[in-house]
Structure formats: C-alpha cells, structure tokens
Amino acid sequence: MAKPKKSRNSAPDPSVAARLPWQPSAPPLATALLISFAALLLRALVSVGPYSGQGAAPKFGDYEAQRHWMELTLHLPSSDWYRNTSDNDLAYWGLDYPPLSAYQSRLHARLINASLPDAVALRSSRGFESHESKLLMRWTVLSSDLMVFFPAALWFVWAYIKDGVGGSGERREGWMWLLAMVLLNPCLVLIDHGHFQYNCISLGLTLGAIAGILSRNELVAAALFSLAINHKQVLPYLEQR
Hints:
The chain is an all-alpha fold. The protein has one domain (26-240). 62% of the residues lie in helices and 0% in strands. Helix 2 (28-48) runs antiparallel to helix 5 (131-161) and helix 5 packs antiparallel against helix 7. It is globular and about 55 Å long.
C-alpha cells in the first residue's frame, strides 16, 4: 500500500511565526548589551534635565539632602552622623537612612571632594549648586546604577529563565522583554536620575537577593537583602507591597 504523500504546503510552526524579525538571529549577549545601552542612554538623557527643588531655597530638594549627607559624613566622625550637634543640625536634612547609606555618601563625598571640594565643604556648602557639582552628583547616581542595579537585573533575568526555575519555552523566548521592563522602569529612572535619589542601590541589592533565591543561593540572598535593609529601611515595606 502506497504511503500518502506529505503536503508541501504544511502549516508554519506557530512558535516560529510569532517571533519578531530580530529574534531568531540575535545572540542573547548582544541583545542584553543593546537593552542595557538603551537603558543607560535613557538615564543619561533624564539626568541632563533639572532636578526637583533646583534653585528652591531654603532646602533645595533631595539633591541638597544627598549633597548635605556627603558633606556631613566626609567631615564628621561616624558618632556624630545621627546626633544633633553644632555642625549637624538635624532640622536641616538630618541623616535618616541606615549606616550603609551613610557610608555610600562618604565614598561619593571623597570622590567629589577630590575635584570640587567647595561642593562638600562643611557648613559653607549649604545650597551649593553649580554646573560642575550637578555633573558630579549625577555621575555618582549613574555609576551606582551601573555597578549595582544593572548586574542585579541581568542576574535576576538569568535566574528567572534558567531550567528548574522559569525554564518554560514562553519565558525563555520573552527574556528580553523582562530585562527591558526591569532596566527601563520609568519610576526608577525618573526618581533616581530626575528627582535625585540612590534607590538603584537598595533596589539592586534586593533584586540580587531575589535572584539568589531563584538560583538557590540562600546565603547570598540573605546577605544581599540584609545590605539592602541597611541601605534603606523602607525595603521590608516595599517587599510587602
């Protein structure tokens, strides 16, 4: 008995037909780098604009709060960072974040002090705003984002899609969209690079902790989340949300 001939006009594979044109040939590393570069460019463009409180005396917004904390942590001993003293008026942007955030401010203060000491001079730098100081302050946020949040986002996406965690076909195909949603989150970009904050550090540590859980590295996850809480105490509340 003759075997039936196969139809030459067979229906296309729906999974292939649903792919976008660049998906079949785009290497994962190149795609991840392209998304990361787009996220970095967006942050740079947002940082060119004004920040919340710019030129608005007497407190000048969160930009001045972060600058003032750099000033305090650079010149005062750690025992005076959270105490009201003649050099630390807690009514004027008193340091109200945990110690890891204070040490982060001290590190950035050292970098800024090396090239623009007037921007972090004790007492005399209140409300200091210049083009150079703005560039330096923006750079500290951008570099923090690159060193903490970006690697955590890449690790999280990898841990989410790997076999045994998020290894279904749909998740493997959609990894680029997940990475784009994390890195291009408008709330984080606007608050950190527009308004002026360092949420990228605490959120990056938290995201790394989640990646640690997904990849079954519980000790790493616990260490990263402890660091996140010690950078910003609101992290437990955000996790509950």
